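Ticket #287: bound-state structure for MTE.
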Amino acid sequence: MKAGAVVGASVFLNGLSARANASVEINKTKKTDYRVDEELTSFEDATRYNNFYEFGTGKSDPARNAQNFNTDDWRIEISGECNKTGQVGLEELIHGFDVEERIYRLRCVEAWSMVIPWLGVPLADILKKFEPNSRAKYVAFTTLLDENRMPGQKRPVLDWPYVEGLRMDEAMHPLTLMAVGMYGKTMPNQNGAPVRLVVPWKYGFKNIKSIVKIEFTEKQPPTTWNIANPREYGFYSNVNPEVSHPRWSQARERRIGDFFKRKTLMFNGYADEVASLYAGMDLKKNF
Ligand code: MTE
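RESOLUTION: The complex was predicted; output attached.
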């Protein structure tokens, strides 16, 4: 599928929630240049090989266990260092903003990768509406905490809820996307329904799923994998083939569906766009 083929079209989407009686139209009026010219990962691979520990730690667990995840009436609460606190609902995200299709590489810290056509809204467009103040240095994100709807939270495999964070300039960067769908459809449950973060130059675990809260903060917020193992997972987690994970090299990756490994690119191939954000920083220390 080529991105251009669907840009400008109205696509009717079924399955906004697991109970799926709503039909949501995503009107992609905005043309985008953000698409890599690489073969897409198949929809089957992208929706059956997942990391979403709230639904189990195995790669095939989320597809199986998230089937009945109820995302009705989803809202994101926005708070912290801003002039206007409030909420944004999923309907408003889809209808009140220009949803774009963007084809990005996704590089997991485990050294596999995919190419995904996301549907989403630039995070900056959403954040600006809440008028962050001069103390807003970071943006913190939180996943839903509800062990009845997310049964994996009954086990203490991670410190629940899953939390993530970005520096303000990273959050405002034009590549940073709040994704509400993929492959022309609303977000499958196992991929982080109904709304997740996509930051393509960082390792996949920064792409927090099923977000219910966004907070502007003055201090660097805690992040789940850093809490779990600070020696192995830093706050920045920029894709960097020159900085090994303590237990494996990050120089190469396996594109899901390929047999041979390929070289990992600095900032996952987005260096032209984002390297300047880290000018003068020691990326070995700030991993
Ligand atoms: N978000 C939450 N809430 N819980 C998770 O376990 N896993 C992360 C990230 N977001 C995760 C999460 C990891 S490790 C990766 S690689 C990506 O989601 C995987 O996204 P995908 O399953 O859509 O490929």
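RESOLUTION NOTES: The first strand starts at residue 10 and ends at 14.
TICKET STATUS: resolved
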